[in-house]
Amino acid sequence: MGKILIIDLTTKSYEIEETPNELIENYIGGKGFGVKLYQKYINKDTEPLGPENTIMFLTGPLTGTIGPAFRSCIVTRSPLTGTWLDSYFGGHFGQEIKYAGYDVVIIKGKSDNSIYITIENDNIEFHETNELKQKMISETTKIIKEKHGKDFRVACIGPAGENLVKYALVTCEPMRQAGRGGAGAVMGSKNLKALAIKGNNLVNVADNEEFLKAVNKAYEELRKSPSIETLNELGTPSSIPFAQNAGMLPTENYKYGQFDKSDQLESQPQSNAFWQRDIACSGCPIACGKIGEIYKGKFKGTISDTIEYETLGLIGSNLGISDINYVTKIANLCDELGIDTISTGGSIGFAIEASKNTNLSFLNNSDLKFGNADTILDLVENIAFRKDELGNILAEGVKRASAHIPESKEYSVHIKGLETPAWPPRGAPGMGLALMTADRGGCHQRAFPVSYEAGSEKWHGENLERLSIDKKAEVVVYLQNKLAALDTLIKCDFATSGISEETYLLLLNTATGMDLPDNYWQELGAKIWDETRRINLKHGFDRKDDYLPSRFVKEPLPDGPAKGHRITQSDMDNMLDEYYNLRDWNKKGVPSEKNYVKSSSNK
Amino acid sequence: MKKIVVNPDLCTGCETCALICSYYNLGGFNPHRACLTIEHFKKGVFNSLSFCQQCEDAVCSKVCPTNALEIDREKGYITLDKDKCIACGNCVEQCPFDMITIDPDTNKAFKCQLCDGEAYCVRYCPHNALGVYKK
User: What is the rounded distance in angstroms from the CA atom of residue A346 to the CA atom of residue A311?
Assistant: First the structure.
């Protein structure tokens, strides 16, 4: 395999190490490498925005190959939550890390002036950023490519990252974001505006012929999957009618689970407004993305890729906005400024509800209300530039903003400080448990039991009772282990609905020459979950932090098929007890010491 | 002669064509090392792909001092005999479409020979954006 590039911004120097065999054999790549390297470079007291925090760009063993839909990730300590953070991105940037000859790029220290770095194979250079300061994402990318060549792939932050907005993101070219948890603020705190990378190394696999067979098998599975077909045709907005019907569409700061104008957020209105063609990440046959230019109206000419389900939920229904042109414009502005649309929608939704309940001067704005898209558009900019008192407070995220507003805890919606995604769990307690236990805070991507609870997936051949907590911990543990294990390869979430666990194993074995057993994923996943848990325990997170926000616990859902449902304190305690037990963690959520089977060996 | 053609409306920019190209020809993956080029978003939201035109009266074959490049009308493309190539760079300089390079590893000219007629880029394109045009 490859090498690890370690860049020290304080001294503007770098080292290149061989990737240790032991790391590969036990942790494969991606998230697996992340948990080990995190413990090497980040300690329990590391300040997320201090020079001692470290930000890593990690690839997997299949990233950069033709294997379908493999991505890359950033690992760092989150300034938003204080937890471990792993944030994933597609596109082309991660592949280029591999072509430059690296498995991982680690960045530590802090530059005393604002800079960007170019990496061309083993040639690493540090550049002044005078002309890039406070520049938008697309402009930053364009200037760097014009200067250094179009073959460079750029990862950069926008003004929000420079201004240390706690949920600033890193955009990885083109338009793919490591969106959640504030990795962009970590880059900003290091005075690092961008990384540009290119390489001419070939990424080789162990067994050429067998690898191609495995790739063809994966293609076949993707072709046969109806959900993949839907993603290609309609993209993620196809989840809008599902969530609406299930009563799980966040509406007006998660107060409701249905939005009366949800049909305007579906795929068709978006397609009518701007979709021109399909786009895919490198090596991906799915092409869930759509891109185009808004054809008419106030925002004519705005180029955008798909407004994804999460953004439609958080910027659309959660803020009461149904005009797809406005949702697109607001999302586009978030992308350009470099802030996470989920946390932005969560923070603004919280502020709007707060403005109804308090007389605080910074919330005294009669235009600040659900559905008022122009005011919301201005507020997004005020957050990214920390322009006024409200923008400055909301730039800190819901948890910290709530501390400024008396009695706001009952409607401040976050878990461990991470604003929750567009899958509010009233009506799906398994999803509640998934959000409660996700290692980076309120996240839907560590397990998605909704498909079993409100969708058509069966658990060991049986339909699960939607509103019951029965068997939900089992499902969550299984899914979390599976997805964490596949994140050592850095799979695409969507591809997992087509590609089988068996085929993922075949891809890995043929690419690396490893000979991993059939039951490998669950074991590897459980090991990773123990590790991220230990990391979070060191940072002071434990059982007390594994609970849902008050809104989902105390307020029965007012609408939809699960009307009247809430997830009670005893539901949460019972699910947590069962979940910890299945993981062999004690009642406080501390993992027992285990002898992990050395899970891999080279042929 | 035959050549690869593209329908840009169907191209998703996934680079599968370039990945399979470098894999077939060089044994590993890297789209920069393919004998086709992709410029993402060159035309607004559309991509621009370039392929060897397998010219009827190919200038590369004319400027090659060792006859490493030859027009093979039966096969339908310009063949490259790597053993004869001395990496002089004349073909690279003269190709009007910039579709020949000197490969950094082999130090030999590198151009599209339709994968000996298999045209893997066409076969692997997941959205059927590519085809082989025969005149």
Answer: 10
- pLDDT (tens digit, 9 = 90+) per residue, A320-348? 999 999 999 999 999 999 999 999 999 99
B83 to chain A, any CB pair closer than 8 A? The answer is no
For A479, A491, A502, the CA distances from B12, given in Å and listed in that order, are 30, 19, 28
Q: Which listed CATH number (3.60.9.10, 3.40.50.150, 3.40.190.10, 1.10.530.10) goes with A3-198?
A: 3.60.9.10
Question: Coil, strand or helix: which one is A445?
Answer: coil
Chain A: closest CA distance from residue B126 (Å): 5
Which residues in chain A have Cβ-Cβ distances shorter than 8 Å to B24?
none
Helix (H, G, I), strand (E, B) or coil at A438: coil
Partner-chain contact A200 B104, CB within 8 Å: yes
Contact A421, A310 (CB under 8 A): yes
Residues 6+ apart with CB under 8 A from A489: A28, A29, A30, A60, A61, A62, A70, A504, A507, A508
Closest-approach residue (CA) in chain B for A285: B126
* Dist CA B135 CA B126 (whole Å): 25
ipTM (interface predicted TM): 0.97
Domain B2-134: which topology? Alpha-Beta Plaits (3.30.70)
pLDDT digits (tens, 9 = 90+) for A103-118: 999 999 999 999 999 9
User: For residues A572 and A329, what is the distance between their CA atoms, to the nearest angstrom?
Assistant: 38
- Cβ within 8 Å, pair A64-B126: no
Do residues A5 and A105 lie in contact, with contact meaning Cβ atoms separated by under 8 Å? Answer: yes
- State the alpha helices, DSSP H only, in A190-247: 208-224, 226-234, 239-246
B91/chain A closest Cα distance in angstroms: 21
CB–CB contact B45 A281 (8 Å)? no
Residue A520's Cα: distance from chain center in Å? 25
pTM, two decimals, is: 0.97
Residue B37, H or E segment: strand B37-43
Q: Is A395 within 8 Å of A340 (Cβ atoms)?
A: no
Residue ranges of the domains in chain A? 3-198, 235-415, 426-547+568-583
Token pair recorded at residue A34: 């992340």
